[in-house]
Amino acid sequence: MKFTELGLHESLLKAVTEQQYDTPTPIQAQAIPAVMKGNDVLASAQTGTGKTAGFVLPMLHRLAERPRANSARPLALILTPTRELAAQVHASIETYGKYMDLRSAVVFGGVKINPQITALRRGVDLLVATPGRLLDLHQQGALKLDQVETLVLDEADRMLDMGFIHDIRRVLAMLPKQRQNLLFSATFSGEIQKLARGLLRNPVEISVAPVSTAAERVSQTLHPVDKGRKAELLSHLIRDQSWHQALVFSRTKHGANKLVKRLEQDGIQSAAIHGNKSQAQRTKVLDQFKRGSLQILVATDIAARGIDIDQLPQVVNFDLPDVPEDYVHRIGRTGRAGAEGEAVSLVCADEIRQLKAIERVLKGPISQITVPGFEPQNRLENAVPSAAPRRGGAGRPGPRQKAGGDSRPRRTGRSGNPQGRSGRRERATV
Ligand code: AMP
Question: Beta-carbon neighbour count of residue 421 at 10 Å?
């Protein structure tokens, strides 16, 4: 199928052609006709599948022939969990809606509210928002939601993870009852299913297998290492393997800051992005990284969620995430749109519980390569997972054992194939 066969408005086809998209991705091929027809949609898809265009294009199509807004009463509302994702979705709207006479706006917290109020006053057809700021603006009388015809919940699972359920319910209560609803989520916990049941009417259900296809393109490797030597190993890998750019995941904000300090000491240009950074700092660092003028970006899961960086060759898990699905999201940052990617995890014995959980989701072990000179004292194979999972904590360290004399890289296991979707979510530490 070609984009030209979808019956999209001419101005949209022009913009799509300019992006050099020729063929719709599987989610686009299914979602675009359903949304164009006005159906509700329940889609299992994550970033990297082309899902944004999957809802933005048909929404723009539906708005194309409508008269332009002259007040702050949007016809379409897209809710996202993070500022970054909101900004990214809005950037897509600007890209695809380039040849349309359309008024769109994006609002999120962490920045001044007044410019957003001014922007809304100019009139808005399509609004992208994070839930908290949307409610603030509504409370201040800066917009009305009584004309919303289409609502999108993007990355709904992450919104629930981040504790937005009450905000979402408050927003829903402000919308007209008669409307089109689109729900996108990477996972389907009981909570998401409950939300979907209450929200959607006869939805077209769309499920693509983005996780496995994205992850299959990514070569996954695990380097066993002692906890205290992770930063040293990372500097070594960056230099030894001449990484031009890498996105490094840290489980905590503090850990991200500490790592940046250490990398800088080693003469490696790096910066951190996480929830304690101001929006201005986050935007600046992300721009630098996207432009290629920043070598290493250290991020927490939520800050990195939805960051769309084309052709990112290298992702590093400096710490393994507590929620196994986050591993899949993380490695989905690389190997996108057909590009080859590499995901490397630095794993210490304390993380054996997280590793086992990830390998269960992947349905197979991750290849292990011990880097010569970094053989761990506490070997992974001797580590004992802690009995009960502790939030933010790691497993009990295994018994100490001296590393063997073998300093050659050792490869064990095989690349995983992450297809599992446990549906269980915990709130990530950011
Ligand atoms: P998303 O999953 O929406 O974050 O999109 C992932 C990436 O795929 C973005 O960089 C898009 O620009 C790109 N993309 C979306 N649709 C297509 C398409 N049909 N063909 C090629 N690239 C696409």
Answer: 17
